[in-house]
Amino acid sequence: MPKCPKCDKEVYFAERVTSLGKDWHRPCLKCEKCGKTLTSGGHAEHEGKPYCNHPCYSAMFGPKGTFWQSANRPPLSLSLSPPPPPYCVDLPHLFAGFGRGGAESHTFK
């Protein structure tokens, strides 16, 4: 008679749920993190232990961050306006010496 991997008691045919290549008692087949009762084949596995697909398995063993962060890129800016291109010129700084009238009032020598 097979034994349940969770409680180590005998599993009778009427109460058997087969998953991960083992026979479990229906109440014993639970997510290792949150304790949600799982169905046969409707869950994820890590190191022989059952986990619900979402959110437990994804949060614990799924990819972390985003594609941009995983590729060693700088974090995305949440600003509504895009940053200026590196070749932009600071126009107010360029015309600062021309006075109130702008370039027209400046006398060139």
What can you see in these coordinates?
GO terms for molecular function: zinc ion binding. Residues 2-63 form the LIM zinc-binding domain. A hairpin with a 2-residue loop joins β3 (44-46) and β4. The chain is an alpha+beta fold and 109 residues long. The strands form two sheets. Strands 1-2 form a two-stranded antiparallel ribbon. The chain has a two-stranded antiparallel sheet with strand order 3-4. The relative contact order is 0.09. It is built from three helices and four strands, in the order ββββααα. The chain has a domain at 13-61: Cysteine Rich Protein (Ribbon), CATH 2.10.110.
CATH topology (fold) name of the domain at 13-61: Cysteine Rich Protein
Tally of contiguous helical segments: 3
How many strands in all?
Answer: 4
Question: Helix content range of the residues, please?
Answer: 10-25%
Order of strands, widest sheet: 1-2
Order of helices and strands: EEEEHHH
| N-C termini distance | 105 Å
Strand content: 5-15%
Radius of gyration (CA) equals 32 Å
Overall geometry comes to rod-shaped
Question: Under the CATH scheme, which class of the domain at 13-61?
Answer: Mainly Beta
Shape-level CATH architecture of the domain at 13-61: Ribbon
Q: Indicate the multimeric state.
A: single chain
Q: Given the helix and strand composition, which structural class is it?
A: alpha+beta
- Strand count, sense and closure of the main sheet? 2 strands, antiparallel
Mean pLDDT: 76
GO molecular function: zinc ion binding
GO biological process, one term: regulation of gene expression
InterPro entries: Znf_LIM
Protein name: LIM zinc-binding domain-containing protein
